[in-house]
Design a protein that fits this description.
- Helix 4 crosses helix 5, helix 6 packs across helix 7 and helix 8 crosses helix 9.
- This protein has a 13-stranded mixed beta sheet, sandwiched between helices.
- The mean pLDDT is about 95.
- The protein has 9 helices and 13 strands.
- Strand 9 and strand 10 form a beta hairpin.
- The protein folds into 2 domains: about 110 residues, Aminopeptidase; about 150 residues, Aminopeptidase.
- By secondary structure, the chain is an alpha+beta fold.
- It starts with a strand and ends with a strand.
Amino acid sequence: MSSGGGVRVLGRDDLPAFLALCADDPVVNVFADHRGRTTGLDPRWLGGEVWGRFVDGSLAAACHVAANFVPVGCTEEDVRVFARYALRRGRRASTLVGPSPLIAAFWDELDGAWGRAREERWSQPHMEYVGPARVAPDPGVRHSGLDDVDALYPACVAMYTEEVGVSPEVGGGAELYRARVVQLVARGWSFARYDEEGRVEFKAEVACASPYAAQVQGVWVRPDLRGRGLATAGMAAVAEAVRTGIAPVVSLYVNDWNAGARAVYEKVGFVETGRFATVMW
């Protein structure tokens, strides 16, 4: 399938070129790289498509188009071309996320055609960690096991609801969201501190990973324990565990207004490397 502007849907045969494109900026592109490796660009596993823009027969830019629209290796011109292609195909994504200038250009090209967004976050610091930690890691933080899921799941729901503003269980989504929590635990990507009664005190997960980088999400401290340093020591433990056991660079992005979280990450050793934007419906 192709269109004006040299855009077509990518398939399995395009995977090497797509991964090479991701490798041009492997930390920023970790989500797309992870999705390419785990799905082989098969739409059945993507739950959507990956679009590529070709110049002189070579893949020059791409975008992941499923629940999340994510640009890969794009210039502002590329995302405007993808936006025009998207306008003909209709909205599929519930979230746009990526480097702020690219999401802004895509959003501008849409010119309101996809309707009013529920929330727009235009300046989210993207941060990277290469270690070692600047503070002592919390020795109580460990990998979650399948026996922990019953305690972990409510904490994940609470975090998601705080962050996104809508519970992941709305509209019958509880089963799917719980399956995602179980998947992360099974991969060894869920980290938490549990009290003596098995309740979650602090948690974080790896959302996606490649041979080059991993992205952390879902950082949460139980409300009655906030302000006691659990997040700083906990994130030091997570960052060290991830960089030594999963990928050499640990990344995340955070809301610019969340001064407390940004201070925690900076204390641990995360450094701002850019700005992301997120638009949600």
